[in-house]
Write a structure and sequence with these properties.
The protein is an alpha+beta fold and 449 residues long. The chain is 59% helix and 13% strand.
Length: 449
């Protein structure tokens, strides 16, 4: 059996708490007594229990109505002969069926219960009803925001402000946030300013992003512009609008931008050092688009030997699709600092060379004629410029040749066509009994005895 705590124990706990929080013990004790008296007088009462039962009953019935009727309402809305936008609005309202039902039930209670039970108190029911109405209106209004995360954040923040206002805590909350501040020289930064800055900047950046996406979609419909020009203009519009959005958001929150000059300069240096590679990739990507050395659709060969097609050029990296259908994300900076072969620049035709050798017993003129014949009729080999076969030298074990031809589709790779030409050379050499040499070594053993 646990003994009841003594007054001395309660007083020592109060003093310890006051010491930790750095508050006057007498003031803390007075506040605790006041909070306890208010709780007993306003919360732990029969009227509050009745209101809680009414609210819980309305919530249960509301969710039950939603569970029973939601699927049927969806079918009815889909069968309506109405414009798509009307159906979409009705579907959004259907998804709010539970809070709408709760609001209707609580409103009926507020309308009829006072006439049936004259002395009943419905202050808590009234507050919950207004909270539910605010939630319904906010959820319907924020449907214009397409980003789900942004939509939920805006709805939560707006509803929280509405809740504080309904319960009468908004002014106290604003005063508490305004009283919490950080002073940097002559500039005072309060918690309220930070909250307003974050909210205003978030809204303005989202609006800027939506406008930039709209501009990029409109640019796609202009056939006279190249894909690189569209991408460059889209990047510039997005960057400019984002900077303007941040500045407008700070100004709307009441921040004096001139007072932040020194502080923002120091922060800018730190952020610049931390994002050095990212900023470098951003501007090198814009440089590539401006000088058009690499554009979406070009076939490029990297310093590592890989060949692929540029699919898209982003703010941080460029996506290249290789012949084996793998997607490689290459930082833009590497495309400027590392050697890159652009097969599409100056024409799509690409020269392919196949090196081979034959035995010294054969006529080089015959070999050149047979080798050139292997390129005739091949669907990937161009007949102009004309294929050629060169006699390149007398090797250690063979007569060396180089067969050159041009293709118009380097994005499909060169390994496959080299393999086909080598097989064709093997077949024609086999038909004419031409030998392909291999190294010979002679070992002499000297007997000293």
């Amino acid at each position: 059996m646990t003994a009841a705590s003594s007054p001395k124990t309660d007083e020592s706990i109060t003093n310890l708490t006051a010491e930790v929080l750095d508050i006057d013990p007498a003031a803390l004790k007075s506040w605790i007594e006041h909070a306890s008296d208010w709780t007993v007088a306003n919360v732990l009462t029969l009227d509050t229990a009745i209101e809680a039962i009414i609210i819980l009953a309305a919530i249960s019935v509301g969710f039950m109505i939603d569970k029973i009727s939601s699927a049927k309402l969806a079918q009815v809305i889909n069968r309506l002969h109405a414009p798509h936008i009307v159906k979409r609005v009705l579907q959004k309202i259907r998804k709010s069926l539970a809070p709408v039902s709760i609001f209707i039930l609580l409103s009926l209670c507020l309308t009829f219960l006072p006439s049936m039970i004259p002395d009943i108190r419905l202050g808590l029911v009234d507050a919950v009803t207004r909270l539910t109405a605010a939630w319904i209106v906010i959820r319907l209004v924020v449907q214009i925001v397409h980003n789900p995360t942004m939509r939920n954040v805006i709805a939560f923040i707006t509803w929280s402000i509405a809740a504080l206002s309904i319960f009468g805590f908004l002014d106290d909350t604003v005063e508490a946030l305004n009283a919490t501040s950080l002073t940097i020289g002559d500039f005072q930064l309060t918690a309220l300013t930070v909250v307003k800055c974050l909210f205003a900047t978030m809204i303005m950046v989202y609006i800027a992003s939506s406008i930039s996406r709209t501009v990029e979609r409109r640019l796609i419909n202009i056939p006279a512009m190249t894909s690189g020009s569209r991408l460059l203009i889209g990047k510039i519009v997005r960057i400019v609008l984002t900077i303007l959005a941040v500045m407008i958001g700070l100004t709307m929150a009441g921040v004096n931008l001139s007072a932040l000059a020194v502080f923002s300069g120091a922060v800018g240096i730190g952020v610049g050092l931390g994002l050095q590679r990212g900023v470098s990739n951003l501007f090198t990507g814009m440089m590539l688009l401006m000088d058009r050395t690499i554009q979406p659709g070009d076939v490029i060969e990297l310093s590592t030997g890989g060949i692929g097609t540029v699919k898209q050029m982003g703010s941080r990296c460029t996506e290249v699709i290789t012949l084996d259908r793998r997607s490689y994300l290459i930082p833009n900076e590497e495309l400027v600092t590392q050697p890159v072969i652009n097969w599409s620049r100056g024409g799509r035709e690409s020269l392919v060379s196949v090196v081979f050798g034959v035995d010294y017993s054969h006529n080089p003129h015959q070999i050149i004629t047979l080798a050139r014949a292997t390129t005739d009729g091949h669907p990937r080999i161009l007949q102009f410029p004309e294929p050629s076969c060169l006699f390149t030298g007398f090797g250690d074990n063979s007569l060396d040749f180089q067969l050159n031809f041009w293709i118009a589709d380097p994005e499909n790779g060169t390994a496959g066509i080299k393999s086909e030409i080598l097989l064709a050379l093997w077949d024609v050499f086999d038909q004419h009994d031409i030998k392909i040499p291999y190294p010979h070594r002679e070992v002499f053993i000297h007997n000293k005895s």
